[in-house]
Input
Amino acid sequence: MLKSYFQKKLIEAGCDEAGRGCLAGPVYAAAVILPKDYKNKTLNDSKQISEKKRDLLRLEIEKEAIAFGVGIVDNLEVDKVNVLNASFLAMHRAVEQLTLTPELLLIDGNRFNPYPNVPHECIIKGDGKYLSIAAASILAKTYRDEFMYDAHQKHPEYAWLKNKGYPTKAHRAAIKEFGITPLHRKSFRLLPEQLELNL
Output
């Protein structure tokens, strides 16, 4: 089972993002403060869990968390600030949503832009080590998937229902055939033969 906390005496918020590697759609991030005695054997890195289990875990996390927040950076902002900064910005926005001020942020990954007045710890593969980061990964992933399902209704030819905007062969083939939507990230290499796209 994952660890309940990094430092027992501090109010900790786990933070993670989803959608960094996508060709379309926003970056989502979540921040979650869990009770120190919270236990959950199935909670893990969202990539290790089935979609059905993620949806059930999201309901439990939202019910059991002391506080949680979700931050969004849309594809236009991603193009402006680059995707790494977009993921930090989404995490900042998620922390801003918290109804309780954390004393320490546990960040999944090895880099972060400091959040004002709150220290942080970067933890590589933290979503597989700490419950609060895993919880954040579940929320970020499920909220983003929900957005992409809705986007699929408007643009079914890109198969976002299956690929969620990630660069699969089907997604790239659709870009080549139909061009891009207002949700695509123009700063990304959308096709190997980028010159064929009239951006």
